[in-house]
Amino acid sequence: MAINWIRVENYEAMSSVAAERTFAAIERSVGRRRPMLLGLATGNTMLSLYERLAGMLNRRGFDLSQLHTVNLDEYVGADGKWISADHPLSYRGYVQKNFFSRLDPKLGMNSKRIHFPDPMNPPALDEWIRSIGGLDFQLLGIGFNGHIAFNEPMSEAVISVEAFAALPSRVVDLTELTIDTNARLTANGDHSKVPRQAVTLGMKQILAAKEILLLACFPQQRQPLLELRQGRVTPELPGSYLINHPNTTIIYADDLVELEKG
Length: 262
Known about the structure:
- By secondary structure, this protein is of the alpha/beta class.
- The protein has 8 helices and 10 strands.
- It has helices spanning 11-29, 47-60, 91-98, 122-132, 161-165, 176-186, 203-207, 222-229, and strands spanning 4-8, 36-40, 67-71, 73-76, 114-115, 137-140, 170-173, 197-200, 212-216, 248-253.
- The strands form 2 sheets. The protein has a 7-stranded parallel β-sheet with strand order 1-10-9-6-2-3-5, sandwiched between helices. The chain has a 3-stranded antiparallel β-sheet with strand order 4-8-7, with no helix packed on it.
- The longest helix has 19 residues, at 11-29.
- The protein starts with a strand and ends in a 9-residue tail after the last strand.
């Protein structure tokens, strides 16, 4: 099944459509007996989405006692553990501030059902996700170098197409482009604040998600998305693996990404 591309006018339109689709996925799960696994992404791309989604959930008053969230990644400090949740770049802090703190406590969401890959034991989350039945709905961004989560590009001389798709959750060294990008977007240009490692959900678990929704709203994402459109799957462009996923939608803000530009 081909990727479903949705072109919208701007960031707010992208956020609105994405919030509606994520809400609909949660709504479909309400009342069923098994847990729903919602994969969350972070970064500036997702800010308005989470504000909108929390408001929609609060207004509807869904029982979220069967909702589990799984975040794609978190930075790792020099001690090999998560950076502190109060670190300005922490993704655990990000989702608490921008999403979970906005949810009405009456909905029943609690910290025991908020999951991150653990740098001290990355395989544990993979095993748990498999035991529950896999991710139901996964939000993604795409890095300026084409990465998804912190699955960084790798040369085909180093790893095969098949082996890259099978990568598990693990601790990774971040590329200089990723460090530079995250310093500019989240650390006021201060490279020293950006950790050099992160723990990431693996390609295998991401690609096994039943539905994937990728959002793009930066001009620098135009090139990796254009390359993705060429239809060649390669570890040199991790986002290209979505080409063969059976249920992926990409929503992009045309005022900044401009995929239709000649």
